[in-house]
Design goal:
By secondary structure, this protein is an alpha/beta fold. Helix content is 38%, strand content 21%. It contains 13 helices and 17 strands. Strands 8, 10, 11, 12, 13, 14, 15, 16 and 17 form a 9-stranded mixed beta sheet that branches. A 6-stranded antiparallel barrel has the order 1-2-5-4-3-6. A hairpin with a 6-residue loop joins β14 (302-306) and β15. α5 (232-250) crosses α6 (263-276). The chain starts with a helix and ends with a helix. The structure holds adenosine-5'-triphosphate and magnesium ion. Adenosine-5'-triphosphate is lined by residues 171, 173-179, 358-359, 431. Magnesium ion (MG) binds at residues 177-178, 261.
Length: 465
């Protein structure tokens, strides 16, 4: 960054001409405006000169152009329609939308426009970065080959996350998605966390920041919030702003963990916008733009070489996105679309919650497509052995429950039953349990060795008979 950066920044934002239109009608969530020849995606503000219209937070009411017809521009509001009056002036504010980002965002909680939501005063020293930048060309992306330790044993040991990987966390309501994200934010080895809370209930936001994240988690995080009662545009913007913030830290050569809770609510917001702008509904009312926007959003994570004066350094954005699966239906259109785009998925299971097994990660159903690329050979071997044991136990679980399993039927199953408690204890983790990764990995390798030896012993004794 040079001394002149703020100047360039200001010049970039200057508008050669202020274009003003007039409100003629309100249709549901959208406002129709006359004489406003601005491109789609432009930011506009309501009211001019001494009669600005304000949003519910007391800021000037903003909107975005989401469509147009022969006579009107269709503007969607970033606040409530209440207060908008016929004939109100609508003034073009920003043609290419940008978001304010900078180091001082760390430890802060902001809304979709980058305004602070906490009571810590204004956030200084920010530059404006594009809200929806050009996608990174495929050739600039690097291989994912380093593990990102999350601090959650079930993930680090069994579904290892790579720096730059994108992973979906699929779960029904109340299974522990938000708690899991909070734990990761507190314990992760990433340099910075950016957490987008999209469409959450207002009460949960404070709870998440105070309890799940805690002061030590917040200190190296940026929290971007758009609650469910905010306009769909604001929810969408908050998700994009979180990506822009993550890109800012990545471009400084940092490993960033971007967490979004939830992608389902992002899709709902885009569906509302698409339908209001007149798009045809398709599967379950989701409009085509929902799937296009999802792909664009999820593609913003990854590893790239950062051009740097010293040496080529790498910056990465690792994306963790929660997806709400209603009634545990994994074939629902959003889950389906997201699973196709991501590099892995973690399934949280209600069955485990019922056994008070937290975090409720279903290790057998979860997949990390880069697992073997980011772990050591010993870790990979141990992981496969543990999976084999868990699968063997699952196969005979029902028989074991009713006491119908005959010991000696199967060597794997015999050992899996013997070690079942120890295997589950390894994957369980209390809130206060911050076992360092190397130690947890050592314990896992030991357990894998013991089970493999046990199986060998049985097979040998069977062979001897
Ligand atoms: N690691 C954990 N240890 C103990 N209890 C937990 C843990 N994770 C979740 N819970 C329990 O589960 C409840 C729901 O968790 P959480 O709010 O994280 O779920 P969620 O999936 O985000 O829910 P929603 O779908 O409503 O957003 C918590 O209030 C807590 O009681
Ligand atoms: Mg939640």
């Amino acid at each position: 960054m040079t001394l002149l950066s703020p100047v360039f920044d200001a010049v970039r934002r200057v508008e050669p001409l202020r274009i003003t239109g007039r409100v003629v009608a309100v249709r549901g969530l959208t406002v129709l405006v006359d004489d406003l020849p601005l491109p789609i995606g432009s930011l506009v503000r309501f009211g001019a000169g001494r009669t600005p219209r304000f949003d519910e937070r007391g800021g000037v009411l903003h909107g975005e152009i989401v469509g147009f017809s022969r006579e009107h521009s269709v503007v969607m509001l970033l606040g409530q329609t209440c207060g908008v009056t016929p004939g109100d002036a609508v003034v073009g504010d920003e043609v290419a939308q940008t978001a304010p980002v900078g180091w001082r965002m760390l430890g802060r909680c902001i809304d979709g426009l980058g305004r602070p939501l906490d009571e810590l005063g204004p956030i200084h020293d920010r530059i404006h970065a594009p809200l929806s930048p050009e996608p990174i060309p495929a050739m600039r992306r690097c291989r994912i080959d380093r593990q990102l330790v999350t601090g959650v044993k079930a993930l680090d040991l069994m579904t290892p996350v790579g720096r730059g990987q994108r992973l979906g966390i699929f779960a029904g309501p109340g299974v522990g998605k938000s708690t899991l994200l909070g734990t990761i934010a507190r314990r992760t080895a990433a340099d910075v966390s950016v957490i987008a809370l999209i469409g959450e209930r207002g009460r949960e936001v404070k709870d998440f920041i105070d309890h799940s994240l805690g002061p030590e988690g917040l200190a190296r995080s940026v929290v971007v919030v758009a609650t469910g009662d905010e306009s769909p545009l604001m929810r969408l913007r908050a998700a994009k702003l979180a990506c822009t913030a993550a890109e800012f830290f990545r471009d400084q050569g940092r490993d960033v963990l971007l967490m979004m809770d939830s992608i389902t609510r992002f899709a709902h917001a885009q569906r509302q916008i698409g339908l209001s702008a007149g798009e045809p509904p398709a599967t379950k009312g989701y409009t085509p733009s929902v799937f296009a926007q999802l792909a664009l959003l999820l593609e913003r994570a990854g590893v790239i070489d950062v051009p740097s004066t010293a040496a080529a350094k790498r910056g990465s954005i690792t994306g963790l996105y929660t997806i709400l699966v209603e009634g545990d239906d994994m074939t629902e259109p959003i889950s389906d679309a997201v699973r196709g785009i991501l590099d892995g998925h973690v399934i949280l299971s209600r069955k485990l919650v019922q056994k008070a097994h937290y975090p409720a990660v279903d290790v057998l159903d979860s997949v990390s497509r880069v697992a073997d690329d980011v772990t050591t050979e010993d870790h990979a071997v141990a992981r496969r052995q543990i999976i084999r044991m868990l699968a063997a136990y699952r196969d005979v679980e029902d028989l074991v429950q009713i006491g119908a399993y005959a010991k000696g039927s199967n060597a794997d199953a015999d050992i899996a039953i013997e070690f079942n408690r120890r295997l589950n204890d390894m994957l369980r983790q209390d809130r206060g349990d911050a076992t360092p990764f190397e130690r947890a990995r050592g314990q896992m390798q030991q357990l894998a060795k013991e089970t493999a030896e046990g199986v060998q012993r049985i097979l040998k004794s069977k062979g001897a008979r």
